Amino acid sequence: MVPQTKGAVILLLISCIVAISCSKNKNNMPLVPVDIHAIPMVHTTDVSSLVSDSGRTRFRMKAAIWDIYSNDSTRKDTYSHFPKGIFVEQFDSLFQVSGSIIADTAYYYDKTGLWRAIGNVAAKNSEGRTFETSELFWDSKAPANSTNAFYTHKQVKITDSDGSFQYGYNGFRADQSLKSIFLFSVKGEFNMKESTDTTGQNINRPDSLRHP
């Protein structure tokens, strides 16, 4: 019994020495903090997808990279980032294309349905009118008649299908169809029957292009 006891003691001492050695090595290892919110939950490339809401297809999007992040530990509050550009086509209730957006990069926030397009942003409505700006917000869940569905405070250039154009130096806001538009600090070449100066008075146009 004595040899066995002595052997057990020696084995126990060796185990303690190994444990202490490993503990010292771990303490010498550098600890690098990692923000889990900075790591995408999902990373997808070459995306072409139809997006639905309340049982209806709302838009089609194409992107080179689609990363999905979480804002909290429950991963219920998520947002998407498209760092290499995005193209979005919006559909009406008859599945007809009612508008499109292209941008260098974009964010989409799931909970609010808000898009933020950044860079060389160009939006187009069903009548062929284009909106060019450096930043554009789109509330995809806003009511159809809301004039705050699209908005920006950056300079915007609006070009009609006949080639006439104008600038909103302090941005604009518009409804979901990009047809009922309010411009701020307007200047440019106008194609209209009546207009006033560019200091903020009402502009009357057959296509309802105006500002407050």
Question: If you had to describe this structure to a student in words, what would you say it looks like?
Answer:
The chain is mainly beta. It has one domain: lipopolysaccharide transport protein A fold (Sandwich). It has one helix and 15 strands. The chain has one helix spanning 2-28; strands spanning 42-53, 56-70, 78-82, 86-91, 97-103, 105-109, 114-125, 130-139, 150-152, 156-159, 165-168, 172-174, 181-183, 186-189, 209-210. Strands 2-3-6-7-5-4 form a six-stranded antiparallel β-barrel. Strand 4 and strand 5 (97-103) form a beta hairpin. The chain is globular. Residues 192-212 have low confidence and may be disordered.
Q: Strands, helices and their partners?
A:
Blueprint: H1 2-28, E1 42-53, E2 56-70, E3 78-82, E4 86-91, E5 97-103, E6 105-109, E7 114-125, E8 130-139, E9 150-152, E10 156-159, E11 165-168, E12 172-174, E13 181-183, E14 186-189, E15 209-210
Parallel strand pairs: 13-15
Antiparallel strand pairs: 1-2, 2-3, 2-4, 3-6, 4-5, 5-7, 6-7, 7-8, 8-9, 8-10, 9-12, 10-11, 11-14, 12-13
